[in-house]
Amino acid sequence: MPDTHLAALDTEGDRRRSLVTRFQKARGRTAELVGPLSPEDLMIQSVPDGAPAKWHLAHTTWLFETTVLIPFSQGYRPHDPCFLELFKARAASAEGRIDGPVLRLLSRPSTADILRYRDHVNGAVLHLIDQATDGELDILAEHLGIAIAHERRHQERLLTHIKHAFWSNPLRPAYESPPELPATTPPPDDWVAHDGGLVEVGREEPQPGFDHEGPRHRVFLAPFRLAARPVSCGEFRAFVEAGGYGERALWMADGWEALRAEGWTAPLYWEKREGAWRVFTLYGSQPLNPDEPVCHVSWYEADAFARWAGKRLPAEAEWETIAARCDSVGNLLGTGYRHPRAGTYRGAGPWQMCGDVWEWTRSAFGPYPGYRQPDGLDEAVHGRFMSNRMVLRGGSCVTPFDHAGPWTRHYLRPDSRLSFTGFRLAEDA
Amino acid sequence: MPDTHLAALDTEGDRRRSLVTRFQKARGRTAELVGPLSPEDLMIQSVPDGAPAKWHLAHTTWLFETTVLIPFSQGYRPHDPCFLELFKARAASAEGRIDGPVLRLLSRPSTADILRYRDHVNGAVLHLIDQATDGELDILAEHLGIAIAHERRHQERLLTHIKHAFWSNPLRPAYESPPELPATTPPPDDWVAHDGGLVEVGREEPQPGFDHEGPRHRVFLAPFRLAARPVSCGEFRAFVEAGGYGERALWMADGWEALRAEGWTAPLYWEKREGAWRVFTLYGSQPLNPDEPVCHVSWYEADAFARWAGKRLPAEAEWETIAARCDSVGNLLGTGYRHPRAGTYRGAGPWQMCGDVWEWTRSAFGPYPGYRQPDGLDEAVHGRFMSNRMVLRGGSCVTPFDHAGPWTRHYLRPDSRLSFTGFRLAEDA
Amino acid sequence: MPDTHLAALDTEGDRRRSLVTRFQKARGRTAELVGPLSPEDLMIQSVPDGAPAKWHLAHTTWLFETTVLIPFSQGYRPHDPCFLELFKARAASAEGRIDGPVLRLLSRPSTADILRYRDHVNGAVLHLIDQATDGELDILAEHLGIAIAHERRHQERLLTHIKHAFWSNPLRPAYESPPELPATTPPPDDWVAHDGGLVEVGREEPQPGFDHEGPRHRVFLAPFRLAARPVSCGEFRAFVEAGGYGERALWMADGWEALRAEGWTAPLYWEKREGAWRVFTLYGSQPLNPDEPVCHVSWYEADAFARWAGKRLPAEAEWETIAARCDSVGNLLGTGYRHPRAGTYRGAGPWQMCGDVWEWTRSAFGPYPGYRQPDGLDEAVHGRFMSNRMVLRGGSCVTPFDHAGPWTRHYLRPDSRLSFTGFRLAEDA
Amino acid sequence: MPDTHLAALDTEGDRRRSLVTRFQKARGRTAELVGPLSPEDLMIQSVPDGAPAKWHLAHTTWLFETTVLIPFSQGYRPHDPCFLELFKARAASAEGRIDGPVLRLLSRPSTADILRYRDHVNGAVLHLIDQATDGELDILAEHLGIAIAHERRHQERLLTHIKHAFWSNPLRPAYESPPELPATTPPPDDWVAHDGGLVEVGREEPQPGFDHEGPRHRVFLAPFRLAARPVSCGEFRAFVEAGGYGERALWMADGWEALRAEGWTAPLYWEKREGAWRVFTLYGSQPLNPDEPVCHVSWYEADAFARWAGKRLPAEAEWETIAARCDSVGNLLGTGYRHPRAGTYRGAGPWQMCGDVWEWTRSAFGPYPGYRQPDGLDEAVHGRFMSNRMVLRGGSCVTPFDHAGPWTRHYLRPDSRLSFTGFRLAEDA
User: Fold this and answer.
1) Residue D101 has what pLDDT?
2) What pLDDT was estimated at residue A94?
3) Which segments constitute the Sulfatase-modifying factor enzyme-like domain (chains A, B, C, D) (predicted)?
4) Chain C closest-CA separation from residue D4 CA (Å)
5) Residue of C nearest to B111 (CA)
6) pLDDT tens figures, A178-229
7) In chain A, which residue's Cα lies nearest the Cα of B250?
8) In the CATH hierarchy, which fold is given to the domain comprising B4-167?
């Protein structure tokens, strides 16, 4: 994420300190996330395009080494020349038609080696920031910003992957113990209305974010209403128990095929034991809480539920228009609770627009009018996924946002269930 | 396609005659299309979700029998009770998890049996129209209309499938001999400009068409320009020869994967022999004609070409807005030339908006604002494909339109190359 | 099969006439076999490594053209140069990693073209035999002998493939009408004893046959008993109905895996309709005849049945030793009944050692002591299959033997069920 | 392996002590083998039907718990009831069509937990032996014998699997450091002759071993010669460099297919770096030693080499006949060198008949005459693999033999290369 907001800082010293803080916070957060994991836990990978936590630790470090230290730190010596090859992005490996190493087989280097690698690189980066001239600070900040954003994205993936890997163990181990939480009063089934008309959406410079989130542009909306809160586990359970997964007319053709190929009968991580639904979480297996937002559903499941409920998913411009006029932050990675929470009914809705669960929209991921794929920098890669993906909005309980805005766009294939994905309903007014 | 335009006819007698004419035209056209095929040709199927021509002959007949004759013709006796099962839609078979018969293995019933089946059903339908009371005619017309539209769709598929099956034969047999055609003057590389603003698009009752083509709604457009003609084979050859198929940065991630998995190096049906490009057509292998619209490219190839050319694909609302203000019909199934033609430069562009090649747009196939999936009738099925498909506009040289309008929407997966698919470029003004 | 028996003929004229007779008989038999098939039937192929009957017609002709006419007939002009490539052995195509044409898509050349091809080649071969000098006759006879043996092998395959293709049609069409047959008295459940000791087995020159059937060698046998007739459908039905297909302890590990992967619950071509077992035959679907030899069972099924019955399959040397001392010929292709028959109780057993069903043995296919793979000629290929195959003995009702002996060895993968394969039991004395 | 040799011991006390010794030796050896492995190493699994070392540790313990302690030790409390399900044989899981846990994902229980599990079970077994009455000792010895043999088999697998897992790591880590070894003088290229005739082979009671190694029976052999030592790396390198992997005529049809599907160009673990062949070993990557026996070749490669060399593989009866009259033990697991060694030329050959490498024979794995599959005990399982496997003889450098004899039979699929498999040549005299 380009560091545009740094521009506002007064002095070079402030900028330097801010950069150090952001770097340390991102790196420290990753270290904190692997705290509960044993060396063996760090090795497990349960989905083909996932990665073991150990690899996330090393690969994020590799990006700092190869895009910040090697280009900008004179005389920098790589921690271990083998690591330059071993931990590079797999996409890049795949490109050359040379298979990369099978990540889950890298028992060596050991966890201790990887942690030393992190320390080595952390020290070198801090030294580099310290030594940079004021003139060098700009370009350094830009590249550090990318690597920090990259590290944050991997934090979300790390928790997403370890959750599934633990789920694959019949013992259903917990990632950590659940914190004590105050009781909540779930918000009512309210709706927010909008009169439609010409609206403006999309990121505008200098707001922080990615290129595919702009340019800002006008969209014409018909009048609509948006649910004030995400669909809850209780509501989704009603759909499951009404036979929604067996009613073909509710499903997209591709969704029905996925449902049958994969044997879906409920959201991922739901299981029935002794007649009662349980949900697997990073805190282990828990009784289903009907007030929580439903999570780990594919777009197909969200879409089928909406059809069953006589509603529809919101278009992304509808979602953004409502989000732009409220300030509703839920539970994000920084909050420390690693599961969607039953919302707290405070003030008028909408609630939990940002946080708890990524929210599927009815919009396919595509370029905004006037969008041009940027050259060169890593972010440009988003433009390469503008087919076969659906847009999600809002961020989840394991998303490490620094500066999310209503314009933030995420995208996934419609059959994805691995991420913390939920949805809220909409309808024509 | 609902028979809404029938409402305009004056008398019952007119309606009856019109119905007979439309029925006979559709059925006769299919018979005409299999004219050049031997019993053996009628058996071949080269793509898994394709079908042999013989099955198209029988299955279209089956729909008249099961949705028109059996429900509405008292005392009707099915031609052969086995056929009711044998020729039903495969989707329906698949639904019950019972494999349907493998279509390409149905050497029995013989071709002669199938032709008798067609005659039997044709006679019974004409008799039914003749005997229907004025009150029955409405509902009959509605169901006949659906079965006629279905037969027409299968005409396009039949030619699409037989083309690929012949291509799979190293002898490259021709479906028929090419007609003599007058020389054409290819249209210039012109562009049509539009100032943008709020426009109205989508089908409006009582215009004929499908439910997913409406409701009519407003869209805001930025100023843009649309190419006056589709991209030509010559232009696409330049892309191929410039190494476009090897330049990863031009391709969607999924497109690049498809390209590598399938080994694409040029459009489907292109091959180089003795240094010269040839294109396989329903008239056999022909030297590449640089003036013809390029055809049988996937959306990924169209999108990559546009990026290479510094342009983009048009949004479907842009395409429709231009199409609505001109009357540009190219080569359709009724025209009798079964290959895209180099356009004729007549009057001001745009040219060939309708006909010759289906034109990919940048728009993912999704519901229009206010769209509700209809219940009951066959067309409802379109709403089931509103994921992972891209919109195409305009129709091709093997599309049997009766009443196409600028609002006509078609959709395919972005990796499809089997249909007669091309594209035209657009750019921001 | 080398034409060693020709050596016994007295004069050149006799040799010439004998060669003509054998050629015409083999070619005429193939033509006769496709008599009941329509052009559409000739196109169907239901197993990946099968072939349509049309291709068998053409490919056998191709071998005469390429290994007899082109090398030995001066001035011979190929019927169609394209055919040389189109109809060559697929193994050869595969070798070059170039996919051969997909056989089932060759609607062109037409059936009429193929029949003309056969006539052209037949005429040219007869002319060649007629014109050959006495000195040329030897080498010509050798190559013709190979091509004739090849044609005969393809006769068995043609019937095997068309049977499966018709089975794949829900209408279960019959290849031909069943002939009237006299009633038979099934033979009793007798056993033939052997005292064991050193025996000699294997083909000895100049007996006709293949290289892998020799050299003749000594084997030591323990005393054993061999069933006087093959296992019958009635006996096998008892195994099926006793739950044999569900009892894992009866099955080889690989067999159990095959059973589960393929969903075997009975022999191929068995199906239960309205409570009664029916068997699909070249005469269409027939009620199961309990007296007939069971057929279309894999080696795994034969082995499991034997274990269930407290017996075992015979070793091939045991089978051959018994076969060598009796003269028991059953139903072969020449007999004209294309299905295993319930044996006729005539004289002392064993019965049906040769004919009706190929009989699985417990012996893996491997080289005899002293075996050396020959160079050059087509038969050498048998030595390439000496892994993962089991030996079968005796020949089936669709095997076109000229000179079978007790030493005749056939081999198939243990999971094969497509051929007319049955078995008889053995036990230690 | 049934404990038949215990019968010879004089007193109950001797029997008890012998049992304790064998138990402790087997259990201690496994613990010793995982000594060099980190917790992360214990997690890795690189072949689908392999297992992580941690699972081998737990599963072998599970067999003692479920077949010895639970049935025979009154009042025994399982260490952890979950483990009874978690560590059971996968074949058993598969049988119920319920997928077992994915072994490589079991990061929990931790290594420390597993080691505690081993200690718990070890203590309970020793206590049980100590407390058993003299009458109980027989049945206890029988079941302990099976579990000890099972543990030993897993020792060989553990090293086989970890070797491949380390090979899959681009860093090519070593399992342990190589010991200092005295130089050897490789044995000459000698041959051992045999006159053939009737010989006796197979295990005879009360010699120790498995049921499929008997009964003892007579076989007739033609005169033959057997190589005095296994084929060496140097000899095999000559085959590789002469293009043996590209010459189709040398290969079985299935072997050629495997070669092409897998891309074989040399034995497993061979790689060329900077023009020189290196071989990956449990001691890391080493320069190829031409005097060592070649290892990790499939039967297809052994067979192709033999054909290229104008020889053949020995029949298993030939191998056994020669092995029975000499006393040639090479390098086994107990020896402590975990790689095939270049033999030492001491006395007359044959050399290394037992140890260093398993030796492929030309014999398919099948039942001996008179063989009957036993009921009940675990060993019975060998009879289930008597299809699609080839016999190996002799044992390898990681085989933990207690009482191998010339009759010892091992079997693998002909495409296996994972085990320490080599071969020696034979020829007809």
Assistant:
1) 67
2) 45
3) 189-336, 348-426
4) 26
5) C40
6) 988 888 788 888 999 999 999 999 999 888 888 899 999 999 999 999 999 9
7) A384
8) Four Helix Bundle (Hemerythrin (Met), subunit A) (1.20.120)
Hey, what are A204's tokens?
């505008």
**Are 3 or more Cβ–Cβ pairs between B and A shorter than 8 Å?**
yes
Please tell me which chains touch C, using 3 or more CB pairs under 8 Å as the contact test. Answer: B, D
| Sequence-ordered list of residues with C-beta below 8 angstroms from that of A333, at least 6 positions apart, any chain | A29, A155, A156, A159, A397, A398, A399, A400, A401
Query: Which residue in B41, B107, B176 has the most chain C C-beta atoms within 10 A of its own C-beta, making it the best mutation to test that interface?
Result: B107
Distance CA D219, CA A113 (A): 60
Distance from CA of C31 to the nearest CA of B (A): 19
What phi and psi, each to the nearest 5 degrees, are found at residue A199?
Answer: -125, 165
CA A128 to chain centre: 30
Cis peptide before C109 (omega within 30 of 0): yes
Is residue C396 helix, strand or coil? coil
Residue range A191-428 in CATH 3.90.1580.10? yes
CA-wise closest residue to C227 among C202, C252, C194, C250:
C194
The pair of three-digit structure tokens given for residue A160, joined into one six-digit string: 């997403």
All structural domains of chain C with their residue ranges: 4-167, 191-428
Asked whether residue D98 carries a pLDDT value surpassing 50, the answer given is no
Identify the pLDDT of residue C10: 65
- Chain B partners within 8 Å of C103 (Cβ): none
Closest residue to D39, CB basis, from A39, A165, A171: A39
Query: Which of A251, A303, A370 is the closest to B222 by Cβ?
Result: A370
Q: Which chain D residues are closer than 8 Å to A111 by Cβ?
A: 40
Distance CA D166, CA D172 (A): 6
Q: H or E stretch including C194? A: strand C191-194
Going by beta carbons, is chain B in contact with chain D, meaning 3 or more pairs sit under 8 Å apart? Answer: no
Q: Is the dihedral of CA B274, B278, B283, B289 positive or negative?
A: negative
| Within this chain, domains A4-167 and A191-428 share the same CATH topology | no
DSSP letters for A98-112: PPPP-GGG---S-HH
- Neighbouring chains of B at 3+ CB pairs within 8 Å? A, C
Predicted pLDDT at B167: 97
* Beta-carbon separation of B171 and C41 below 8 A: no
Residues of B with Cβ-Cβ distance to A428 under 8 angstroms:
369-370
Place of tokens 């291709």: C55
User: Distance between CA atoms of A362 and A392, rounded to whole angstroms?
Assistant: 9
Compute the average pLDDT of residues C194-205. Answer: 95
How many CB atoms neighbour CB D105 within 10 A? 22
On average, the pLDDT of chain C sits at: 91
pLDDT tens digit sequence for A107-129 = 999 999 999 999 999 999 999 99
CA distance C338 to chain D (A): 31
Contact between A195 and A353 under an 8 Å Cβ cutoff? The reply is: no
What are the contacts of D69-74 at 24+ separation with CB within 8 A? Answer: D69/D121, D69/D124, D69/D125, D69/D128, D71/D143, D72/D128, D72/D132, D72/D136, D72/D139, D72/D140, D72/D143, D73/D124, D73/D127, D73/D128
Q: Count of residues for chain C?
A: 429
The more confidently predicted of residues B6 and D363 is D363
Tell me how far apart the alpha carbons of residues B303 and A384 are, in angstroms, rounded to a whole number.
11
Answer whether A169 sits within 8 Å of D106, measured CB to CB.
Answer: yes
Place of tokens 């009737």: D198
CA distance A89 to A84: 10
Chain A neighbors (3+ CB pairs < 8 Å): B, D
Helix (H, G, I), strand (E, B) or coil at C427: strand
Instruction: Work out the average pLDDT over C25-45.
Output: 97
Contacts of A384 in chain B (CB under 8 A): 251-253, 256
